[in-house]
């Protein structure tokens, strides 16, 4: 995760004071931006205010305002982050109104995980300044955000939102185009589909799946992604990994070797990308680095798992 | 990960002094067992000896012996962990000889990730005492081991090896039956196949995939597996998650809704298994626990990532 990059403080409107809205507010305020949270429900405002008062310093809290009117929220705003319910009509209506009330230069982002940007923004006047900025849940502890452009989202909008997200300390994934599930949820869904298949076939119990991930795959993936994992697992890096294990992986792919992407053009692209990030001669040093970090995580988890098991035993 | 459970010290034979063999040796010696590492190549012995001297206390080191003869290694052994190359004929030959030389009660395990137990042990006399015990790489930092039975592996053998692995502090996944890729590599392969698909479709670059996992999915999965993640993401747990999101997940499954396991019997089994581990009313407390742990991991990574980026920049 990148440390928050310094940038000029912005005026941020958060639409919706639920769990996602307050988590975004926390990040923006903590990074020096001014925040107005808008929610029509006064209980949500009270609840968000209490939560933020407990999480933020008094200095950061002073940068957060609360309001019940959309007009107040977006007045003078540089950036709007929408966090209302996942109903297409609700989102379309709120953006239509927000665009009519906000300054001409304002950027509009939806937190949606399920809706595509073109579905939300199709009838918005300034859709070049609209996009999806999808966080993980909860945003303030998982430092990732997917920026998903619609057909008319401008490169300049993507650049500006990327800079803003980096100022929050978020790692930014910038999709080339929208696609259902974006990246994070598609990767998750693929693994879970296979996990369900193992349960259905009677090969492993549900808790065996969870254990395999949390004591194995997930620990490694907390530091290096799946492509880097394979890059580090071969002396010659990803290219050699593909040559050695690609045919077997293609043969055992869920859809069979005909449709396996191990037989397509992607592995070569991954190999090229990896070599731009790490020389083959630096692989052993990176492996040693990973081992050290896994030892630290294991020590952290040894305390953690005890607490977790107590939790489970209640 | 479970803390190492106390058990009577055993005599362990490690066949092969490479990276996996020495890592197993480290775990067994550190947990109080006596270890004999066997390798015909004297360079391997020297290299393993040096590595272990650097990693183990002198008290633990004193429990490790080195030899070049299989007979010396398995003489008096309670347990044999084979870590030679992934060639079926080499493994079959070494097990045939080891079984003829070891005590009648000895248990024989292969570290293989690619070969099925019945392929390795089909012509072994005591195949009820044979199995695959597959670690992650490297075993001593990733606390997971998959126990994979062959057709004739006895329950008693599985029980004894599970107890032995728990004494090392390893988390144990006990497969009901063998299947190519076991559990860990099948889950990994499913996610990577989807990752390659996203690269091939031009939706995301390879490093975007890695970033999504290491700053998002992987951090969560380092503490809770994929089923628990979904269980915690719905007020009503996995059962409600399935009802709310199952149809959409099935519709967007790689093979389409007809073959999606979201439409099969597995989700109900997962829901039942989750409720045996955690009450619905305890979900909020477990969510809070996870958030605290993610904050600790994020702090750990903030140091880590800096080191990692330096590495990448060299």
TrEMBL record, chains A, B:
Annotated Pfam families: 3HCDH (PF00725), 3HCDH_N (PF02737)
Stretches assigned to the 3-hydroxyacyl-CoA dehydrogenase C-terminal domain: 181-233
Classification via InterPro entries: 3-OHacyl-CoA_DH_NAD-bd, 3HC_DH_C, 6-PGluconate_DH-like_C_sf, 6PGD_dom2, NAD(P)-bd_dom_sf
Keyword Oxidoreductase belongs to the record: yes
The keyword Zinc-finger appears for this protein: no
Similarity comment: Belongs to the 3-hydroxyacyl-CoA dehydrogenase family.
Name under which the protein is recorded: 3-hydroxyacyl-CoA dehydrogenase
Organism: Mesorhizobium denitrificans
């Amino acid at each position: 995760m990148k440390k928050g990059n310094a940038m000029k403080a912005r005026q941020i409107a958060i639409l919706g004071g639920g769990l996602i809205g307050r988590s975004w507010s926390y990040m923006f305020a903590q990074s020096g931006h001014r925040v107005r949270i808008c929610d029509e429900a006064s209980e949500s405002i009270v609840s968000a205010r209490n939560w933020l008062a407990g999480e933020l310093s008094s200095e950061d809290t002073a940068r957060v305002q609360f309001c019940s009117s959309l007009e107040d929220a977006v007045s003078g705003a540089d950036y709007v982050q929408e966090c209302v319910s996942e109903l297409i009509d609700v989102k379309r209506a709120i953006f239509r109104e927000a665009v009519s009330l906000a300054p001409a230069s304002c950027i509009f982002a939806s937190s949606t995980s399920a809706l595509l940007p073109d579905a939300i923004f199709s009838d918005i006047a300034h859709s070049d300044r609209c996009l999806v900025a999808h966080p993980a849940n909860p945003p303030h502890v998982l430092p990732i955000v997917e920026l998903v452009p619609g057909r008319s989202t401008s490169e300049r909008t993507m650049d500006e939102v990327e800079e803003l997200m980096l100022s929050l300390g978020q790692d930014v994934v910038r999709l080339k185009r929208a696609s259902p599930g974006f990246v994070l949820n598609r990767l998750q869904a693929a693994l879970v589909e296979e996990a369900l298949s193992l349960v259905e076939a009677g090969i492993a119990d549900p808790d065996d799946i969870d254990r395999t991930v949390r004591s194995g795959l997930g620990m490694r993936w907390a530091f290096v992604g799946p492509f880097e994992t394979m890059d580090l697992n071969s002396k010659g890096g990803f290219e050699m990994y593909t040559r050695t294990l690609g045919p077997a992986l293609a043969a055992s792919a869920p859809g069979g070797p005909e449709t396996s992407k191990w037989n397509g053009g992607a592995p070569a692209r991954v190999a090229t990308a990896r070599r731009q990030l790490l020389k083959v001669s630096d692989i052993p040093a990176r492996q040693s680095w990973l081992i050290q970090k896994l030892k630290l995580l294991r020590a952290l988890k040894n305390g953690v798992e005890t607490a977790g098991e107590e939790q489970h035993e209640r």
